[in-house]
Every structure is written in C-alpha cells, then in structure tokens.
Amino acid sequence: MNIRFVLNILGRVLIILGLFMCTNFIWVGVYEEATFWGHFYACIITLLGGAGLFLGTSINLKPSLGLRESYLTVTFAWVVISAFSTLPYLFTQSIATFEDAFFESVSGLTTTGASILNDIEALPRSVLYWRSMTHWIGGMGIIVLVVAILPMLRVGGYNLFKSEATGISYEKLTPRTASTAKRLWGIYLGLTFLQVVFLMFGNMDFFESLCHSFGTIATGGFSTQNDSIAGYSPYIQYVITVFMLLAGVNFTLHYFLIKGKFKKLRRNDELRTYLGIILVAGVVITVILVRHLNLGVEEAFRKAFFQVVSIITSTGFITDDYLLWPTRGWFVIFLLFFVGASVGSTGGGIKVIRLVVAFKSFYVNFLRLLHPNSVIVLRVNGEVVDDEKVSTILGFIVLYFVTAFVGTVVMIFMNVDAITAMASVISSMGAIGPAFGEVGPTSNFAMIPDGGKFFLSFLMILGRLELTTVFVLFTLDFWKD
Predict the structure, then answer these.
(1) Residues 241-248: what's their mean pLDDT?
(2) Which of 49, 105, 312, 328 has the fewest CB atoms within 10 Å, measured from its CB?
(3) 220 annotated to a ligand binding site
(4) Integer Cα distance of 372 and 324 in angstroms
(5) pTM, to two decimals
C-alpha cells in the first residue's frame, strides 16, 4: 500500500481546508470582531500541518492510487479535516471542549446539521460563517474538489472520486474524472450564487444569505438563528424550499438540464419518484394541518412542504415543530427519515434510487413466480439492472438497518433513552439533523454524553461515505498484501 501518497493527498486536503479557513478573516474585519488571533492560529496550524505532510512525502513520490489507498485516503481525510476544523471553535473559545467542537465539525462537514449549541446567535459572526462554510466544503466533498483542481490525481483519480462520493452516479459527464469533478463543483457554485441572489431579494442581508445558501445547497441545515428559518418571511421560506429540493436532485441531471438533454430527465425513474414522494407527503400533511390545527391553506401548505423537503433531502432546516403535529403528520415525517435524497445529490439517507430498485425487485420476483416461463427483467431509467447490482443494493439496505439497530443499542448502553437513541442514530447516519425525542426539531444534541457524541460523529462519517467505504477498513482482507 502506498502510504506516502495517501499522506501526500491528506496534506493537500489540509492546505485547501486552511485556505478556506482564511476566508474567516473577511468577517473578522467586516464586523470588527476580537477573534483575529483565534482564526490566525487555526489557519497557521492547518496550513503548516498540510504543508508538512505534503512536502515531507513529496521526495521520490510514486503517485499510484489503487482502490485500497482510495478507501483509506477518503476515510482518513474526513477524520483529519474534522479534527482540524475544530480549531476555529476552540481558539476563538466559541466551543469549550474538544468533544463538542469535534461533534459540531463532523456534523457540519457531513452536512448533518446536528448541533450542541444552545445559543447560536451569541457566536461571533466569523464563527457562524465558518460553521456554515463547513457545510459547503463537505456538501460536494473536499476530495471531489481535490480531484478537480490537482491534475496529479488523475492517476487513480476515478477510484478516489468514487470512494469519496459513493452516492454520485458513475455516469461520467466527460471522459476525464477531473473534468467531471470540475463540472459538478461548477453547478454547485452556480446554485449557491443563485440562492444568495434570491434570498437578498427577500431583504435578507448578504452575510445571512451566504450562510443559509451554504446550508441549503449542501443540504446541511446550520442556520445563523436559534429558531432556524421559522422567523423569516414566507418568501424566504419558499426560496429555501425550492433550493433544498434542487439540492436533493442528482447533480448529473442539473448538467443535462443545462445542456438541454430533457429526455434524460423525463425518463429518470428516481427523479419522478423523488418528486412524487414530496408531492404526496406534502399534500397529506397539508390536509392534516388544515383539518386538525385549523391553519390557513397557504400556511399549512408552506409548513408541510418545507418540513417534507427539508427531511427528505436531509437538510434539517425547520419552520415548525413537527412533534406538535397530530400523530399522523409527524409519522409521515418519520417515514421520510428512511428515504433520503437522490443519488448524486448533496443529500444523505438511503437514497431514492435504492428504494426504487428494491420495490421493482420485489415486483419482478412476484411476476416471475406467477409466470415462471417468462423472461422478466428489471429496468431502471430504461436500462436493464442485472441481479448482481440488485443484490448489492438490497445488501446495502439491509446493512443500513442493521447498523442503525446496533447503533441504537450502543446509545442505549450509554444511558440514552430508547427513542432518543434510535432518533439520534438514524439522524446521524442519514445526515438529517433534527429528529425525535430529546433531539427533536426545537432541541439539540448537547445532552448526549461525550462518548455518545464521538460515536454519533463516527456514524455521521459512516453515513456520509455510505457504509462500505468505512467498513471495508475493518476487514482483515483489506490489510493483506
């Protein structure tokens, strides 16, 4: 295994992280904050750490990156950048302990949006910006950015790309992986810019527009306000709803839309299912809120669709406490926790396409039982899906639920009540943020014991890398030559 090249890439990742960190100084100056030295120490340590790893491994370096090195690089990259991302919190004394700062950093980078902060508005603006920036860095993936801007990683770059973005469709936009990564980041940047503009049209200032756009396009959910999006105007809530929905769509489809390839959108089973689930769930909850809470149709529609889109895309912004809804209402929200956004989006969860394949598989097998002599194949987007791929997808779903069950048991043994344990585990694995029990939409994760925070942080990274990239490191075969 080429450990030196793995460390070399980690050094590059830290340098990029340090450069992102330097943008905090903009807001230190704009708001004349006394946090300059805290951010300075954080930037210097991160940049020097990255430069040390990069320069120390560059002599006689052999740039070869196989599948094993890719898995190792990606997993350790997420742990390392999470650790270094705690520095702005710690050096500015915004968060007192490493375990809390690590949880907040992992939650930001994995776009989970779970927080341990009780008073978000008390934080310096530069720290709030960094908190939202971690969403934006992690949304598309810092490794995808590395592949995009560092030509050296064309050697084995596709393996690295797949390992970091296991949810992204393997349909290349261009023959070169680096070009594909650049186009994805271009779309990501474009959507962010558009949302900032639309939010500013709603009289939201530039700072808050930027922070909320970072949280929306990355499907993260960190807000600059204690009540999330609830205090903003209906216009702002509708804008965020639309952009959350767009962020939950496969970014490859955004590219095809720009290129005018509308046929690929029309025949995409996942997109139709994704939009169908949102429509049905939104309408059902709207009716429930109108009938049982006596809300006006527009208000019920806005609250219903905002919460539905926020949960299915794993963004985690809120405008209403769904735990106060009638049981049927919040039960629909609970079901959405197990859906997730589209593959190739910034959203988390199981992903819609896997559920589409699973249900089609059950239906095809049922037809085969009824018509044993017929040749019946499973098709997705008009293409045949072979049995091996179906088995892999079904295996992932089983592994996801087994991991969630084991994780719940672990949290219960850490003296967390059963409902909160299950909710926090599902939320962490699905990168959702608000959940149920003591970690509901109007609460936070501060009450979770320190050991539980580290464990949930592990589950966040596990869910962000879609299980197998991390689990494979714990097998004996992985470490054999």
Answers:
(1) 95
(2) 328
(3) yes
(4) 50
(5) 0.91
